Amino acid sequence: MDFLNTGCTIFQGIGVTNSKAYGKIRFLDTVINYDNNKQIGSVGEERARFLSAVEETIKSTREIAERAKSTIGESEAQIFEIHAMLLEDEDFIDSVLLEIDSGASSEKAVLKSGEKYSSILRSLGDEYLSARATDIKDICMGIIDTLQAKNKKSNQNDEQYILVANDLTPTQTVKLDKSKILGFVTFDGSPSSHTAILARAMSIPAVVAVGKIPNEYDGSLALLDGVRGKITINPDENDVLEFKKERERENKIVLEHERYLRSIMHRPAVTKSGQKILIYANIGDGDEVEGALSNGAEGIGLLRSEFMYLSRQNAPSEEELFLAYKSIASKMQGKRVVIRTLDIGADKQIPYFNLDKEENPALGYRGIRICLDRKEIFKGQIRAILRASAYGRISIMIPMISTLDEVLKCKGLIEECKKELSSKNIDFDSKIELGIMIETPASAIISDILAKEVDFFSVGTNDLTQYTYAVDRQNARVSHICEENNVAIMRLIKMSADAIHQNGGWIGVCGEMAADLSLTQEFVNIGIDEVSVSPPYLLGVRGKVCACK
Ligand code: PEP
Ligand code: MG
Fold it and tell me: Is the model's pLDDT at 367 over the cut of 60?
């Protein structure tokens, strides 16, 4: 390792996990857009590479259009037909080929031509043509995805790295090969952004809100300290040695504590005064079930079902969803699995839903608000959940509820789905539990009314915090407000707990606050029945509950 060119540079941000890493940093662009600056071979080969990617993209777009007709409806599916037609546009193809002839890689050429065409369309001042500019962008990304999927093999590199990005959307994070990531650093972001949640779920260090790190550092060695919230680029030899010693010391302490926690892993989590709390896991897909079970999860308290919709070109079919849910329910062997219905919008954007850009996406069209409009998508998911409920103990949970009307509409649609399945003699659990997330102050304030309609509540403290304190969960500048204050949110949780208990239901907490051990005693005092946390936090929370009064 070369320590001669010392002169380290430190970037300070906010640490979101209690761990550290050492390794090369890589910028998101270089990770996702493999070698997109270089031509693969001769100009002729690069032309062929581009043309074959276009052909493949047209084929897959037409297939998507066909499938979309049955999943999202004829008129919404038309957009994919338009994309396929745009992909065949000769002027666009010629423009890309011209760029390739002058030395650009296919990816660069597609981006450049796409930008040129988009800005021409936007400059015409016609609303319809401006909207086509977005389509051009989408099809360019489609071609680039195809080019890179083909290219991935030749770019495989097993080296792990610390990922540096402006910010990471959930869609970008699901595209990453997580086994290679040692840690995350984001210029923006906040401790309750989905990047931070993912880092905690992966038990890797993350530092957010460090400000801009210049691209020239791509490939440099760095120390990432998730505890102190800093990244040291090109550290000197002493720093690295000290870091390694410190990590060894910490690992020893952690291992010892973990040994104790593992010894109580299969005991129920009961406080000293005899109050039992269920310890459940938050997961994004079936791959995480094993980690949940091996850390003592007594159930799944939150399956963020939208993760199965991200990083795809089209919505999963009812059958695909059914098989995924069935497999999770079977693996959980009778333990409860709470499936949260699709919660997209805000920071979780799915291109094929073609949602409009909004001024305030967190306050806009998201979660159940979208599902109640796109009923076919929602019902397809509900039918898949119901069908899977014949193979395990599944509960349905609706996100982002703020009114009674939303709950009643959801119940109506669930009833319709049950009737549809019954008429076809398809099995499902007719007594399937229904719950809602308490994520808006409105839902907590009317929890006495909502509690009469459902079996359980689960408090999504990440959103409940942002809406209660008016603190954007992506904005690190204001995140300290809710880190330093929790009286308001605790009152809302208590109100909700009292309301659901009076109606014979139960209440869980599944936001990040559930893993904050300094709050466990308070949750116990409030009467929380279940806490749901990322798998790496399960042992710690169980240990803490057992130590509570
Ligand atoms: C929450 O808001 O606390 C929650 C669990 O949902 P998400 O973080 O996915 O928005
Ligand atoms: Mg939420």
Answer: yes
